[in-house]
Amino acid sequence: MVFTRRQVGAVALAAVSLSVGSRGVARAGERGRTLFIAGDSTAAQKYADAAPETGWGMALPFLLGGGLRVANHAVNGRSSKSFVDEGRLDVLLDAVRPGDLVLVQFAHNDEKSDDPTRSTEPWTTYQEYLRRYLDGARARGARPVLATPVERRRFDADGNAVPTHGAYPEAMRALAREERVPLLDVTALSLALWQELGVEATKTYFNWTATEQDNTHFNPPGAIAVARLVVRELLRTRVLARHDVVRLHEDIPTSWITWPPAVAA
Fold this sequence. Notes:
The chain contains eight helices and seven strands, in the order αβαβααβαβαβαββα. By secondary structure, the protein is of the alpha/beta class. Helix 5 (122-139) crosses helix 6.
């Protein structure tokens, strides 16, 4: 599907407005710093027609303070390539200001080798597209951050959580080392969390309902858990300071997650 730059901007603005209005972020009129998310459906804002599916980016604002707000540009079904080709990276970068953060998480849809509009190869085109995000953020005085893709819920016959992203996480790790940018290893941490929880308990973190068994997308508890992993990595890599973070060790009510009416693309 092809969108005009205006359509892309309108949808992005709607998602950003929802994130900025969450608890614990800057009041209206306060610019402060912004953490931009470029990513896919695992992070994206969800709307009423998708509930209880929840992107981890929807939970992130509840863990951030100090005037740091979230601008969630992640969109269902996008890869590092299609996000660029549709003009979504341009829209995101138009809003970036010096001192902001640009967090990039892709791979789920880059892996779809049968779709030339989204597919990339880990050690070539995937890294090439990711460099566009890094270069664009740096050119605007922002700090780029790479996040390896959150793991799907998949277990072998012995109950071991198994990786599903092939070479993409390692390709991102290598790029982060080469480009000297912070890396949030969400792949490794989420795989370890699913292993700790086990086959049955993980169902309560993913979008399992009476009519759907979704092992890729999250419900509110899962989105909150993954957002915690992201924030812990932002602290570990010193992208954020302790005063930037709130509620890291507190319960976050799932009732805080809301799904507004869908917006037209």
